[in-house]
Design goal:
Layout lengths: L4 E12 L2 E13 L4 E5 L6 H9 L6 E6 L2 E2 L7 E4 L11 H11 L4 H14 L15 H14 L4 E5 L7 H18 L2 E5 L3 H7 L2 E5 L6 E6 L11 H14 L1 H4 L1
Parallel strand pairs: 3-8, 3-9, 6-7, 7-8
Antiparallel strand pairs: 1-2, 1-4, 4-5, 9-10
Helix pairs in contact: 2-3, 2-4, 3-4, 6-7
The structure holds adenosine-5'-triphosphate (ATP) and magnesium ion.
């Protein structure tokens, strides 16, 4: 298992009563093992759809998604997803949320409790195992969602704007934590964001998508050594380039 991910001519159309809409067209992409890849693009360009298909929660209309030589045909514990909106089970405690994936795999109570505790600690919430989601802040809920996605030890982590709804300061902290987790666990991460700053801070490489139907307009290597400074000149230069690609310069 070297978690090599390949997308070949991935196209997705949705049928509606008025006809079909093409959400994605001919996406070709190779993601290297342990790569931190960010995906940016305008709202509605198909980013969530793309992650859902890689997760195996939806299927391409045409083209294929290949993971380690096999075509993705459904969900697997090997691909963990953190969703755009908080998606914890409100009736379960934090620990029981993290245990969920292990429980459906049939792991016995004691073992899964131990693993869940380990991931709870990794995201710094050891004192909140018995709390319920409503007792947590947005940033804490997102940490739980990350711990839950990590608990099944996926080799690929799919993250859909995971920090979109937390304040700027919490977002910075969560970015640091995620980079540390990535460094320690050596996962491949596909991370969708609306924030060019966030992409430049986190990614090895940034995929820029066009408006619907989503196509890849550019893949930009960030190439700035870590730890990065958010305000460095190199960071500013890459940011400019990405903004230009997104077309925001033209609209000003
Ligand atoms: N299940 C569905 N049925 C019909 N159309 C859908 C479905 N899911 C997504 N779409 C359409 O596909 C397009 C892409 O949606 P998607 O949610 O992937 O965009 P996105 O890039 O994630 O947007 P955002 O940045 O706002 O989250 C949109 O036009 C959306 O209306
Ligand atoms: Mg989305």
């Amino acid at each position: 298992m070297n978690n090599k991910l390949k997308l070949h001519n991935v196209t997705k159309a949705f049928q509606s009563e008025e006809g079909g809409i093409k959400a994605l067209e001919d996406i070709n992409l190779e993601v290297k093992p342990n790569e931190f890849l960010c995906i940016i693009g305008p709202s509605g360009c198909g980013k969530t759809t793309l992650l859902r298909m890689i997760a195996g929660l939806d299927y391409p209309s045409r083209g294929e998604i290949i993971l380690d030589g096999d075509r993705v045909s459904g969900p697997s514990p090997d691909r963990g997803m953190v969703f755009q909106e908080f998606s914890l089970f409100p009736w379960r405690t934090v620990l029981k949320n993290i245990e969920f994936g292990l429980q459906i795999r049939g792991m016995e109570d004691k073992e899964r409790r131990e693993i869940a505790k380990r991931y709870l600690e990794l995201v710094g919430l050891q004192d909140f195992g018995n709390s319920y989601p409503y007792e947590l802040s947005g940033g804490m809920k997102q940490r739980v969602a990350i711990a839950r996605a990590l608990a099944t030890e996926p080799s690929i982590l799919l993250m859909d704007e995971p920090f979109g709804s937390v304040d700027a300061q919490t977002r910075n902290v969560l970015q640091e934590e995620l980079l540390e987790i990535w460094r320690r666990t050596k996962k491949t991460i596909l991370f969708v964001t609306h924030s060019v700053d966030e992409a430049v801070y986190l990614a090895d490489r940034v995929v820029v998508m066009s408006a619907r139907p989503g196509r890849i307009i550019a893949c930009v290597d960030i190439g700035i050594p870590r730890p990065r400074k958010r305000t460095s000149m190199e960071a500013n230069e890459v940011r400019e380039r990405l903004l230009m690609l997104l077309g925001s310069k033209r609209q000003k």
